[in-house]
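Morning run. Coffee first, then this:
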Amino acid sequence: MATSGSYNFTLDLSEIFEEAYERAGLELRSGYDYKTARRSLDLLMLEWQNRGFNLWTVRDASMSLTAGTASYDLTAEKLDIVEGLLRTNAGDPSRQTDLRMNRISVSQYAGQTNKLSQGRPLQFYVERKPTNITLHFWPVPDAVTSYTFSYYYLERIEDSGKPGSNNVDVPARYLPCLVSGLSYYIASKRPEAMALAPQLKQVYDEQWSLAADASREKAALHVSPGGYNDL
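And here it is:
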């Protein structure tokens, strides 16, 4: 039996839009059809980021902390912090050490009596602003040693862009879900296709469940009996 031997199937924007319109019982005919489909696609990507933890968007980064400086602005593509570690002696194979830091809420940070107290940072609060996030560390880094904040963050999904030859910033396994979601969005905007919208929504939800389940963390989970100890 002959097979292709390739594993490169994907869809560019034009193909995604055509497939979505066909599922909605429509034809992609005009430049406005293309424009409105691209806008709906970018809105769909924002919806996905609100749905939860997309593993393919997790990235790692690090930054040096400055003695006496408590707050640090991150760039706009960094949406949230997944894990934060305090690293000392960065780059030294025999001495580099990572200590997990505790993420605290705004109320916990606000409850700190002296926010200017300096020492080895143990906690951080993530302030989520409309355009970016700001990290606030407590205690404020001191000058005793050099500290590096090593962290994993959720990265924003890239915009679709204008050329029809662009690919989308999602894994290929998410393409069925993406096309299903876009067809539902398009049908919801077109009077002649609105009757199909509930059916397309059902397909979209099923495809999302399949994709999200396939992308969940597969690491083993170990649970020990005994309850919690007071810290």
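Residues 10-52 form one domain. Good start to the day.
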